[in-house]
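Let's sit down with a protein and look at its sequence and fold side by side. Once you have written the record down, we can walk along the chain together.
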Amino acid sequence: MAKSLLSSVAEEEVKLVSEDWRLSQFWYDRETAETVAGEIRRLCSVSASSSSSSSFPVALVACPTLYPYIKKLDPNISVQLLEYDKRFEEYGSDFTFYDYNQPEDLPPAMKHAFQVVVADPPYLSKECLEKVARTVAFLMRPQHSFSLLLTGEVQKERAAELLGLHPCGFRPQHSSKLGNEFRVFTNYDPKDRLGGWEHVELPPSSLNASLNMQSTLEEHIKE
């Protein structure tokens, strides 16, 4: 990510509430939060025909670290945080209570309403990712939408099978050092950003879904 995107964040330390490990909360370190927030900012400005970043609403599913970093980069980006921890009600109307055990128990107005959806399932289990994947599908606009998943390396095959996502070279890090290696997965090729796509073998169904999505998105991404 270009340094200019980071400068406004670097001027002042972003303040976060303390982690609650009972809720499986582990905040990203500063470099990770700035990198992902910068990528989201870029995705919100991919359309040359739109002059307002608010035209590309962003949903953050269980990844509250990103909210203040995105808002510091561009306060005009429309961001909705879906989170179980009600301490984040301090974000007002930008907060929606979310329990991954009820993946589609969300306001009807949110269905297929978001251009960018970023998710970080709270647990590294098949059941948790399957339910969060249902939430992502509920939130994303049917066309020209971008999906990013931050989760453990162990979820690589499931991320491909459930959402048609590819792993990127960038490795997210957390303020509290975790034993599990984390990855970023996307439904679009970030080219030279996020470390680019890694070349891996995907199941045929996932590969076809990903290729169809990529051909559509490439028409709308400015290089």
About this structure: Confidence is low (pLDDT under 50) at residues 1-11, 211-223. The beta strands are 58-61, 79-83, 95-97, 116-119, 146-152, 166-167, 182-186. Residues 30-43 form the longest helix (14 residues). DSSP finds six helices and seven strands in the chain.
